[in-house]
Design goal:
With 349 residues, the chain is of the alpha/beta class. It has two domains: 106 residues, Alpha-Beta Complex (Aspartate Aminotransferase, domain 1); 224 residues, Aspartate Aminotransferase, domain 2 (3-Layer(aba) Sandwich). The chain contains eleven helices and twelve strands. The strands form three sheets. A seven-stranded mixed β-sheet has the order 2-8-7-6-5-3-4, sandwiched between helices. Strands 9-12-11 form a three-stranded antiparallel β-sheet, with helices on one face.
Length: 349
């Protein structure tokens, strides 16, 4: 992996890390902040109460603040697996939409799930296949907007998923860390008695290194199990990072709106550039990724790095072995230069 790799002349289309600055109010608290004691395992009350405004029928007890969205995913999957073991000794199955975020498969396996896959068509769920496979599963991972595809699921599909998962008592883990980075509509919050929404402050507010994420659920038994597990693992999430996250919730919405304009213009630039290079790809509708088809992806990723100083990620890491993922979380000059280097490489093959 190329996470953290950089240097003079290197252009990275790799890590999904926003290069835009966080709101100035977030780091404005630092000179006077002095809260360095242990905090609540579930998360600081002021932050959880601020999040209540975004989630209908919630209370502060509907949330657990975690070390990024990754811990929220990990704890949720392990909690669901533990709850299922109380009902059956049979190994539970988790439905994963492919292509998928590269951590989904190992996290599901670490928790003790047997993975089952439903393949996306043009980056979206095929409901007929989903409905056929979900009957035998105890959990499903949904990611919209998606990393790595950049696609957004149709609201009609999400509503159908709500109904069938409720009918079969399946837990839905809805990974919505890109919910504020959608170019085609507003985010749709999946509902249901066993829905767990995963989110973070990393992408919306460019706060990746602070590692503040959270899970939301109206399933009190699951939330209780997650808190119990967290109390024996990471304990409380960073107190100062939570205070900075709380401050982010008070920032005017225009901050997000202005960021979205920048992301959309970058999306248009990289999509147009790749189409002009003759690449086959889906047009992103959210997040900041493109996933073009590439002949000999391994050779492409290797040669682009060692010969052209361009970092890209293998699609096989995301369950898409014939593709390569590009993140356009970098300024337009670098996108333009990176596309130029890709073009030179393609012409030389």
């Amino acid at each position: 992996m190329f996470i953290g790799v950089g240097g003079e002349g290197i252009i990275s289309f790799g890590s999904g890390q926003p290069d835009l600055p966080p709101p100035k109010e977030v780091y404005g608290i630092l000179p006077d902040y002095n809260g360095f004691k242990y905090g609540l395992i579930q998360g600081q009350v002021n932050l959880r109460e601020a999040l209540v405004k975004q989630y209908p029928r919630s209370t502060a007890d509907s949330f657990v603040i975690t070390n990024g969205a990754s811990e929220a995913l990990d704890l949720s999957l392990r909690a669901i697996a533990l709850l299922q073991k109380k009902k059956s000794r049979k190994k539970p199955k988790c439905l994963i939409c492919r292509p998928y975020y590269y951590s989904y498969l190992p996290l599901a396996e670490y928790a003790g799930f047997e993975p089952v896959f439903t393949d996306l068509k043009e980056g979206r769920i095929v409901y007929e296949d989903f409905a056929k496979k979900i009957k035998d599963c105890k959990a499903v991972l949904i990611n919209s907007p998606s990393n790595p595809t950049g696609r957004v699921e149709a609201i009609e599909t999400l509503k159908a998923i709500e109904k069938i998962t409720e009918r079969y008592g399946v837990y839905v883990l809805s990974d919505e860390v890109y919910k504020d980075l959608i170019y085609v509509r507003q985010n749709y919050l999946i509902k249901g008695p066993h829905v767990v929404t995963i989110n973070s402050f990393s992408k919306t507010f460019a706060m990746t290194g602070l590692r503040v994420g959270y899970l939301w659920s109206l399933d009190k038994e699951l939330v209780k199990q997650v808190i119990e597990m967290k109390s024996h693992t990471s304990m409380n999430t960073s107190i100062i990072a939570q205070e900075m996250a709380y401050t982010a919730t008070t920032v005017p919405k225009r901050y997000i709106d202005e960021q979205l304009v920048i992301w959309e213009s970058r999306r248009d630039m990289i999509y147009k550039g790749m189409v002009e290079l003759g690449l086959d790809l889906w047009k992103p509708e959210g997040a900041f990724y493109v996933l073009p088809k590439i002949d000999n992806p391994r050779g492409f990723v290797r040669d682009m790095f060692y010969k052209h100083q361009v970092i890209t990620y293998l699609g096989e890491w995301f369950g898409a072995p014939d593709r390569v993922r590009f993140s356009y979380a970098l300024d337009v000059d670098k996108i333009e230069e990176g596309l130029s280097r890709v073009g030179k490489y393609l012409k030389s093959r």
